[in-house]
């Protein structure tokens, strides 16, 4: 099968991992990025041209339509059997133009509810919608009668690979008590500051926002964006991976949840009822309902390594079986053609 993914090019991104899984499983696949293929979108110049482009698309429908008309022409020239849209800002004209050619086009949203921009995703006539949050699935189905499916995010078996040494040995090499990674937006850094205030040794990896960064967590900031084997080793070798979900992950979890568990990490995350479905153990063991509970559990598990190792073995084996991108693309293809 030939698949077009409409979304952002990027290292270890949702789109790149989907493409890798499709290609690995024998399909033709390519990513169509509105910011791909030109030096205008790269480096310092790219920051300014992307900013201008976003403003133009937000306030000028004529410009926005033309951007996605051109993208539709590129996708139609590729002649795919399935178009998988990941951007949340795709103009409805794109969907109309590719469907006129008889293409099957679906939307898969890898983010939480606050990223829906002008609700283009609801204004477009997709054949199916995939969301990860049970709350989003319910209101999209009940209130708009959309053909919506709930999916679970995933980890890449060929990128998020657990090191071959024992977890105990890897923990000694890495020498990190608690780590987290991602974008340091204010809500996350406020929580991390609470851990630091309680003398928990935290290391954070990822992206510093250009505004509203809390410099009080600089002591924990490693000033590094992690991918590939380095990321897997840090996840596996850190004693605890702290995963404070975005506040708008109402009933769902994030991709970090799957990457960490798929890499053999011991993870503590915010409690969500869906954890009962996703985990092979009692979710109360590896989740918290507030930051005080998180601090208590971090302190407990730092002093009980054998319990960490036992939990990791059960969770890792479960995720290897059920939550890889290879599993996810099968689910997407099965439901896209219903």
UniProtKB/TrEMBL annotation:
It comes from the Bacteria. Residues 190-333 form the Spore protein YkvP/CgeB glycosyl transferase-like domain. This is Conserved domain protein. It comes from Fibrobacter succinogenes (strain ATCC 19169 / S85).
